[in-house]
Amino acid sequence: MSKYIIAGGNKIHGTLNIKGAKNSILPLMAASLLNESINIIHNVPLIADVYTMIDILRSIGCKVELDDHDLIIDSSILTSNEINEVYVKKMRSSIIVLGAMISRLEHVKIYEPGGCAIGKRPIDLHLKSLRRLGVKIDEGEIIDCERKDIIGKDIILETPSVGATENIILASVKAKGKTRIYNAAKEPEIEDLQNYLNKMGARVIGAGTDFIEIEGVKKLDKVEHTVIPDRIAIGTYMVASALTGGTLEVDRIIRSHIDPINNLLIKSGCDINYTQEGLILKAPQNIKSLNFVKTDIHPNFPTDMQAQLMSLMTLADGETVFYETIFENRFMHCSELNKMRAKTEVINPHVCRVEGVKKLYGSETKCPDLRGGAALILAALVGEGESIISDIHHVERGYEDIEKILKNLGADIKKA
Ligand code: UD1
After folding, report:
1. Whole-angstrom Cα distance, residue 228 to residue 21?
2. Ligand 1 mean position to 397 CA, how many Å?
3. 3-state class of 126 per DSSP?
């Protein structure tokens, strides 16, 4: 099992060339099943989850080529209707292929993804919505789905689930009639999915708002698309610079996507200036405590940045209470940060109090999950002495070459 060894204290300083969003590329790859044609996607992040999705698409018959950061998926012929258990266990978001597969095939089988480290993460809303569209579903260890026609319907989501919204869109694009999603998730990655599908000839409007309308079409065409920049990866590297006293230029951002993160970084004392396509962040002299941080659905502060922002707050000039509203077990990084002499206290599964300290100290820690692992790397970059961080496979699921990127930006980091 690989580890990162980090000697803290170096400034994270320079220019970041950002790749596409993890949470965008996965649904785009699933959407590629719909057109029975060629899909060309640029700016693909080379992360473990993308490789898993490539394996999934190949396992059901797609021809997939990856050339540097360009992906070509030929979905003309499918040879299987089943997603193997191995993939679903490896990557929970494999469930995102279900909507597209059931649109394409009359009978589909996929394994139940089960819970995950950060919370229960049920898929009840995905399945309830597909049933409403006319899919018969037998639920057990295997989820067995059968349908004749998919008929457009009105669907009201009880919770604005990102994955369920995407699965409904994917299942409805070629349905008979109109599907309307009320209380849809508004995350930027759903807008990217809408743009991708509409370039194929789909008729989806409203993504980015809580009401999405999909008018079914009979046929879709080939498509070429560039993935939106990864707002969470950008935020993570910005915190790295903010913590270490550096200046970071990011080459490409979409302002409305990154604003919920930037608003809090600015409050914490960072100076952020926008360039033509990107931004420049200058670290604060003293990190100001944010008092209260609440994660919520877009356009509020994203749960996927909670752990990284917490690392910043461990060195702030006062106390910050974090209120995590999306997941019920997303504070696993706290006890690891405390090994570095941070002062965090988990009050209950949704609330954690952080008291800023003057210094963090290198220690041996374990990545509990993807973003929690990123938070430990950030803390190690500023901690005095050496940190050894294990279980880094979690981080590699979502960050391309994080070790190389941080090294290029000045970090003393190696993988062993
Ligand atoms: C996506 C993101 C993830 C992010 C999350 C919230 C991807 C690949 N992953 O995950 O990085 O943290 O959005 O922004 O895009 N829920 C149900 N029933 C369901 C579905 C969800 O109760 O059928 C609940 C979940 O348990 C959770 C909440 O809804 O508490 C939000 O989950 P959801 O928006 O579905 O997250 P994901 O799509 O899994």
Report:
1. 6
2. 17
3. helix
pLDDT at 120: 76
Over residues 355-366, the pLDDT tens digits come to 999 999 999 999
Alpha helices in 147-254 (DSSP H): 162-172, 188-200, 231-244
- 116 is annotated as an active-site residue: yes
The rounded distance, in Å, linking the Cα atoms of 221 and 226 is 17
Residue 365 in contact with ligand 1 by CB distance below 6 A: no
Question: How high is the mean pLDDT of the chain?
Answer: 97
* pLDDT tens, position by position, 195-253: 999 999 999 999 999 999 999 999 999 999 999 999 999 999 999 999 999 999 999 99
Atom of ligand 1 nearest to the CA of 23: 15
pLDDT at 114: 66
Looking at residue 216, its amino acid is G
Residue 115's pLDDT is 60
CA atoms within 13 A on the CB side of 293: 32
- Distance set, CA 5 to CA 16, 47, 257, 389 (Å): 21, 20, 32, 6
- Of 88, 125, 132, 162, best ligand 1 pocket probe by most atoms within 8 Å of the beta carbon: 162
Q: Where are the alpha helices (DSSP H) in 227-254?
A: 231-244
Ligand 1 atom closest to Cα of 327?
30
> Is there a contact between 146 and 135 (Cβ–Cβ < 8 Å)?
yes
CA of 288 to the centre of ligand 1 (A): 31
Of the chain, the percentage scoring pLDDT greater than 90 comes to 95
